[in-house]
Amino acid sequence: MRVEGARRTSAQPRRMRLRGAIAALLSTIACAEPRPRLDVPVIRLQLDADTIDVGQPLRGSVTATDASGVVYVSVEACSDTLRKRRPPVNISPADSVTVFFDLDIALAVAAGRTIEVRAIVIDDQSFVVEVADTVFVRGSAVRGPGPNCRPRNSAQ
Q1: Please, are residues 64 and 121 in contact by the beta-carbon 8 Å criterion?
Q2: What are the angstrom distances between the C-alpha of 59 and each of 10, 83, 100, 119?
Q3: What is the pTM (predicted TM-score) of this model?
């Protein structure tokens, strides 16, 4: 029997509040668990010598570590007359990678000049890290201008 003037209450607003409370509780629980931290690769560029003779190969190694995994390593050497690159190494994600290089610069760089050596590492979270070092080419020539290298992402 229905009474005139009586109001029916809907359970919908109560259900909405309950759903909202459950969603807030679940999001709080999800945030309380430790999440994997984003980290950037750590690179160590090691040159065998900081001075080389004209025609002597440029040797060294690059060691990269990253908790999420290193996937790419590249080494290049450049000066005002040279741009030499070791073929890049694409890797299945690895925590630590060491790449040795032996760049034959032959007679492309005159005595008295400098060569910039750059290592580039990318991890599986797409963090890109670059480090650079300089090598002096020994000889009796007058020292010329330094390296004419541009960062990878600069305008040509």
Answers
A1: yes
A2: 78, 15, 8, 13
A3: 0.65
